[in-house]
Amino acid sequence: MDSAPRPRKVRLADTRARLENDIDLWVATAHPDGGAPGLVPLSFDWNGSDFLLATGRNTPAGRNMRDSGLVRLSLGDLRDVVMVDGSVVELPLSDVPSARWEAYAARTGWDPREAGPDYAAYAVSPVTIQAWRESPELANRTLMHAGHWLT
Predict the structure, then answer these.
(1) By three-state DSSP, how is residue 78 classified?
(2) What is the pLDDT of residues 51-71, one digit of tens each?
(3) How many whole angstroms separate alpha carbon 144 and alpha carbon 131?
(4) Are 120 and 101 in contact (CB under 8 A)?
(5) Facing residues of 53 across strands?
(6) Residues in a beta bridge with 149
(7) Which domains does the chain have, with CATH numbers?
(8) Biggest CA pair distance of the chain
């Protein structure tokens, strides 16, 4: 049964809490020349402005993010969704400040710097963030547009 939609202020607070506290998310990618799309779970760190992901450079997700520069992230479950469309840049692990990796490791329980030379970092800048709980919230689901939080 559908419930009344949350006010934007509440939805923003709930979304920010999920970004600050969740550990894992779904990463959807596609290759720019039409290759098969991919969907994989990855751990992440959110510093209040961008996401930090890590995966193998030669995995489908790593290749697709590097080659397309685009990614879709999803947090939550079927009836409480946060969807993020963002631009993504691949970085050598050594280009990410140590403090950021320490925050990532504290949050996720592992440090990608120990994964070996085939791993890379992926910095995701959110462009659009949407959040909804069931159909009553679909009409006003956009919380960030063009990289700016809506109020």
Answers:
(1) coil
(2) 999 999 999 999 999 999 999
(3) 10
(4) no
(5) 122
(6) 144
(7) 8-149 (2.30.110.10)
(8) 49
